[in-house]
Description:
By secondary structure, the first copy, chain A, is an all-alpha fold. Chain A folds into 2 domains: 1-51, Arc Repressor Mutant, subunit A, CATH 1.10.10; 54-193, Tetracycline Repressor, domain 2. Chain A is 78% helix and 0% strand.
Amino acid sequence: MAKTVRKKAGKKDLILEQASRMFREKGFTATSMRDLAESIGIEAASLYNHIQSKSEILQEIIFRTANDCNLHLDTIEIDGKDSIRKIESLIRFHVNMMVNRFDDYHVMINEWIHLSDPYLSTFANQRRSYVQKMEAIIENGVRSKQLKPVLPYVAMLTILSSVRGIEFWHRSSKKIPAQVIEDNLVQHLIGGLKKN
Amino acid sequence: MAKTVRKKAGKKDLILEQASRMFREKGFTATSMRDLAESIGIEAASLYNHIQSKSEILQEIIFRTANDCNLHLDTIEIDGKDSIRKIESLIRFHVNMMVNRFDDYHVMINEWIHLSDPYLSTFANQRRSYVQKMEAIIENGVRSKQLKPVLPYVAMLTILSSVRGIEFWHRSSKKIPAQVIEDNLVQHLIGGLKKN
DNA sequence: CCTACCGATCGGTAGG
DNA sequence: CCTACCGATCGGTAGG
């Protein structure tokens, strides 16, 4: 019986994994439950033994991923590094998400609009809270004169967006190793912020 | 008769304009022809007097917008400004697209995956050519020692992505004027590139 | 996990 | 520009 339970959990994970990949490739709306079932090797109706609805799949992917981001930010806030180290840790975390959990991260960023109502506003609130915390970290760096007098809002935008740009690298031939992209991006972004 | 022609052209423009807005808000796949028709005040079947298919609408929006980007880049390449001025012009152009033609630009960047096959590869080729030209401009700046020794690929990624981040500003309360965002982003990005 | 099937909605056409 | 309608496909359920 323990085996049955483990088996079922494994199947749901498989569904979420395949769904994440397909939602990233074709978008949530353009992916049908029949497409998803076929990629796993079962009939569409059988999916509903493991999940409640198509929407539920999207919710699980997005909130699982968002939660990892929130946990990392909380970790950063409590250990007393200076602003620049905090920002560097943020950049490296997001680059790693983009590289190692590409599907989940991409779905969170691009498909959240298709969440339905209680979840949609929950996600929007979480995201607002997240960027406000990031801006606070940057603002502290500006006040302590570690950083140039940038607008925290613009700096936050630049950091999060640049990481998102790695999607393009992911899609392309990837001649450049991930670690080189990461280090260069850190240098590039911190270089634009740090006071010399 | 001239009046009829003008009227028809106006109607098609109206369809493209509404479609661009709805594709941006809900995505191409999630927008139905009935949704689109309703926003204009006609029946879905009547749309087909002005356009051939749903795909054609997406194609027109995307290639019209891509063409404007390509034309601007060509303009930049022929007038003999130095690398930094060229890059600044690029940043300001894309920020302006994001601010003033938000729907079209957003649809091009986010919905191109839903182009069907001859158009899909044409777009991919155009985009590859565009970023290669951008990288060449940056590489020239590095060689002439105007810029720090950055990887052109990473710098290109950062610039295009940062502009894309303005989407977030667009969606939010917009307390900060567009011109301030634009100037700050230019300063921020050029500051990270320029050799002091 | 499957077969069989539901009502709803999709993009698009015919014919006026 | 509309009414009327097409075949296909959608998310999901019943019943085993």
